[in-house]
Design goal:
Number of strands: 42
Largest sheet: 9 strands, mixed
Number of helices: 7
Length: 658
């Protein structure tokens, strides 16, 4: 069926339906051409249209309205257009009236007392004043006119308790002294010139002089001080040169310590005491409950020691850090002398004897409940008593790594960037064996599980020597001696003898660290900080450490100690199978294990490690025994035995949680 175009109605075939039709020349061509010709003829050509427009314009018959323009006569009228005045602006008469909704409300607001201009004027009046006056706060959050000091400076308002009415008062500080008499207003004002200067206000009653202090700031400002019929003293002992503050509410007193800083305080309460020196801070509190009290407080800054181990250097020695050489800015103490272990009954010394935690490692007797029954030196102390222990005080650590350099830090107090070592704050047995007392034969031929079970029978706080405590002792030794050669520094220990020695072989030593015979003699026994035979004589089981094939896991929660499991344990690294230690894995909280072999008896860490890669579970023993001249040291890592293993050379050491 044929189609037609939309505009002119021209005929055209439908290609889908007219394909078989005979072509009609008249219909498809001639008629269409005629329609096109007629349509074109009916339309005016563009050039002809332009010519016609020109004729109309010239003839004057074309008007503005024909083109949609507004007549000039309608300018300024409603519905018309605006005209411009001589100044090129729209005349006011042609503008609409400004009477839109809200204008009246604005006018009303602008004349009210709450208008912005009225409020500003009110505030402006507050800060107007006469020459010689100051702008200040006349009340809380209210600016107004205050008196100016005659010579400038800070203005101090003195307030007195009613007891002082009629009494003379003195305010002195720096080179200035001001005096007066307390009147019935019980107030006075003084202008002072000193900055960062402490002024003391004093007045006497019945022969007793009462004082109060106020310290100016680095700029002039208004201050206040109150004198009460109350006087107590706080003496703070802290490093000389420290800036010490005592704060109670808005009262802040400041002193510079000369070894002590003495504050006279005029009111009761808990005073916050803070001392600073450089980047060190120490804080405490003192409670004053009544006038006439004298309280004391000793503040100490954290003592931080550190060493650096350059793992690219084969030397066993570590480098001591000082405050000026520590790249992490943690060290506060320098060490200028080296520790000297004792030999036999001879003398020994160590610069660390004056610092915690080392100085706090002391012997004591415990009962089954874990309570101290006597410290060494007390009348009731005896090494023959069961549970002769050595206390390891809490200490804080940091371990940092930069390239080939490993840094170790120990602090006696909490310090930013350091954490409590999980093996510190515990009692460790002085002797090996189930009772830890002198003269006993170390119990051997027990598995680690049996040793664990026996330890728990002593009480809830007891367990066997563990990985965390081992690492704590290692870290204390490393920072103190700055050398991985444990045996070379303290002594070989009993590692080449005919039999095991009973506990108490080092009882003859009068110094806490040393050996019973010459360092190189392998039949004598050793002790470190009163702990006997950490290496030599008998191996010791270490709990809280399991090895699966070569993967090593640790735990610091005694209630989770168990064999052949990773439940409650954390992976710390993967050990080489056996050889002399070359490198360590070190955690942020000071735990460490051997990683790679590659050292020797005199290089890197001259200690042996053993952990066969046989795809089995293993347990850990450390230390060395009386007939193993090679496999012995504080961190000898023997992780080659299965949990069912026991031997006549393996014993146990107790731990008690406080």
């Amino acid at each position: 069926m044929s189609l037609k175009t939309k505009i002119l109605g021209l005929f055209k075939y439908d290609p889908d339906k007219d394909g078989a039709s005979t072509f009609n020349i008249k219909q498809a061509l001639n008629d269409n051409w005629d329609k096109l010709d007629n349509e074109v003829a009916a339309r005016v050509k563009t050039t002809e249209l332009a010519s016609e427009v020109k004729k109309t314009v010239k003839g004057g018959s074309l008007t503005a309205s024909d083109l949609g323009a507004v007549s000039a006569a309608d300018k300024g009228k409603a519905g018309g257009i605006a005209g411009l005045g001589a100044d090129g602006k729209v005349p006011a008469a042609q503008l609409p009236a400004m009477n839109y909704e809200g204008k009246g409300a604005v006018d009303t607001h602008n004349t009210s007392t709450s208008a912005h201009n009225a409020l500003f004027a009110a505030k402006q009046n507050k800060i107007k004043g006469k020459k010689g006056k100051y702008v200040g706060f006349t009340a809380n959050d209210t600016v107004g006119e205050v008196d100016a000091p005659a010579s400038g400076g800070s203005r101090i308002t003195l307030t007195f308790a009613s007891d002082f009415v009629g009494q003379a008062w003195t305010l002195s500080g720096g080179s200035e002294t001001y005096t007066g008499t307390v009147d019935s207003s019980k107030t006075a004002t003084v202008s002072v010139l000193g900055i960062n200067t402490t002024y003391t206000l004093s007045a006497a009653l019945s022969g007793t002089t009462y004082t109060a202090e106020v310290t100016t700031k680095a700029y002039y400002t208004a201050l206040a001080v109150a004198l009460e019929k109350f006087q107590s003293t706080i003496t703070v002992t802290v490093d000389s040169g420290s800036t010490v503050t005592a704060t109670l509410g808005s009262t802040v007193l400041t002193k510079t310590s000369t070894g002590t800083a003495v504050f006279t305080v005029g009111k009761a309460g808990t005073w916050a005491i803070k001392a600073t020196k450089g980047d060190q801070t120490a804080e405490g509190t003192v409670s004053i409950t009544a006038s006439g009290q004298s309280k004391s407080l000793t503040l100490s800054y954290a003592n931080v020691f550190g060493v650096c181990w350059d793992t690219s250097n084969s030397s066993t020695a570590l480098t001591r850090l000082t405050p000026s050489t520590d790249p992490y800015g943690l060290v506060t103490k320098s060490v200028t002398t080296e520790p000297k272990p004792a030999v036999g009954t001879g003398a020994g010394s160590s610069p660390f004897d004056s610092f915690m935690p080392w100085s706090g490692m002391k012997e004591c007797n415990l009962n089954n409940a874990g309570a101290v029954t006597a410290w060494k030196g007390d009348s009731g102390f005896s090494r023959s008593n069961n549970f002769t222990m050595v206390f390891i005080p809490e200490f804080y650590v940091a371990a940092k790594r930069s390239g080939t350099k490993q840094y170790f830090y120990v602090s006696d107090m909490p310090k930013a960037g350091m954490v409590k070592h999980p093996g510190s704050g515990k009692f460790v047995a002085r002797y090996t064996g189930p009772g830890s007392k002198t003269g006993s034969n170390p119990m051997v031929n027990i598995t680690r599980a049996i040793a664990r079970s026996n330890a728990k029978k002593n009480g809830d706080k007891w367990h066997t020597f563990d990985f965390a405590t081992l690492c704590a002792i290692v870290l204390l030794y490393i920072v103190e001696f700055a050398d991985w050669n444990f045996r070379g520094k303290i002594g070989s220990g009993r590692t080449d003898a005919n039999s095991v020695a009973n506990s108490g072989a080092t009882d003859t030593l009068t110094y806490h660290t040393g050996c019973t015979t010459a360092k190189t003699n392998k039949t004598g026994c050793v002790q470190y900080r009163w702990i006997e035979n950490l290496w030599g004589n008998v191996f010791q089981w270490v709990d809280g450490y399991n090895v699966n094939n070569v993967d090593c896991y640790y735990c610091t929660e005694p209630s989770n100690y168990a064999d052949d499991t990773t439940s409650g344990y954390t992976k710390i690294g993967t050990m080489d199978d056996y050889g002399w230690i070359y490198s360590l894995a070190v955690t942020d909280d000071g735990l460490m294990i051997p990683l790679e072999r590659g050292g020797s008896t005199s290089t890197y860490i001259p200690v042996y490690m053993y952990s066969p890669a046989n795809k089995k579970w293993h347990v850990l023993l450390v230390g060395g025994c009386w007939d193993k001249s090679t496999y012995h040291d504080l961190i000898y890592f023997g992780a080659g035995n299965e949990s069912s293993h026991s031997h006549s050379s393996i014993s146990v050491r107790l731990i008690c949680e406080p």
